[in-house]
Design a protein that fits this description.
Length: about 250
């Protein structure tokens, strides 16, 4: 059975090590902080053999070189990561990546950046989504366009609802405040927001999340909901998404 080790790094990132006990292989999902990743791998008795980058931003690929120097890991990444690091294998939508006997599907989730990808492991029921979607939020649209980003979120929405989503930042309390502003009558969201406050008060992470809960509460995944479309405007979901994203940027 695959093992996921999650740990905090930088100011609000989460790091993830994905380990296959049978093969002994370990993938670093993004590399915000090489020292922390190497230390966490050492604590677990694991050697990082692969790096799976989701996108090029330094808080996701900035540790690539140091981890490779220390472990000899191979870098698997979208082409855009070449902006800050060499890569060993370029991947894009429709490709697959293996960790031992487990296979991850590469999904285009561009919008935050134009080459952003996610890794979905159907057998394990998990997806590493980087900054494309967060608990109750989504990434800022630094490089993409609203239709592009909405199409990306639609690909995430199409995964099995029981899929566990490992997103890369602890932004959930702030996201919840905007979500309640965007969709104040959503009873499931109100309950979720209280759960988030309780978890953070206890010093617990709100990541990972489960897709089913996000489908019911995350306004960015619900931009095709008629009530939200009526409130936020737009004749198409991507237009409603654009309105929500712009409002969140200025919230």
């Amino acid at each position: 059975m695959l093992q996921v080790h999650q740990f905090p790094c930088l100011s609000d990132n989460y790091g993830f090590l994905l380990h296959d006990p049978d093969s002994g292989q370990t993938a670093a999902i993004d590399t915000p902080d090489a020292k922390v990743y190497l230390a966490e791998a050492e604590k677990k008795g694991w050697t990082i053999t692969q790096i799976w980058n989701t996108h090029w931003h330094p808080d996701h690929a900035g540790g690539n070189k140091d981890i490779v120097a220390a472990s000899g890991a191979k870098i698997i990444a979208p082409k855009e990561v070449e902006k800050i690091s060499e890569i060993d294998r370029e991947v894009s939508h429709g490709d697959t990546v293996n960790l031992g006997a487990f296979t991850a599907d590469v999904i285009d989730v561009s919008g935050h950046t134009n080459g952003h990808i996610a890794y979905y492991l159907p057998e394990a029921g998990i997806a590493f989504v980087g900054d494309s979607v967060f608990a109750l939020g989504c990434g800022r649209m630094f490089e993409g366009e609203p239709k592009q980003f909405w199409d990306s979120l639609s690909r995430i929405k199409a995964l099995p609802p029981e899929t566990t989503l490992y997103c890369a930042h602890e932004y959930t309390q702030a996201n919840a405040k905007f979500a309640l502003h965007a969709d104040p009558d959503n009873a499931a969201l109100q309950t979720y927001s209280k759960d988030i406050d309780n978890r953070r008060a206890a010093g617990k992470p709100t990541v990972p999340t489960v897709l089913a809960r996000e489908l019911a509460t995350n306004p960015f995944l619900r931009a095709d909901d008629p009530a939200l479309m009526a409130k936020w405007g737009g004749d198409a979901p991507h237009e409603t998404f654009a309105a929500l994203r712009a409002a969140k940027d200025n919230f």
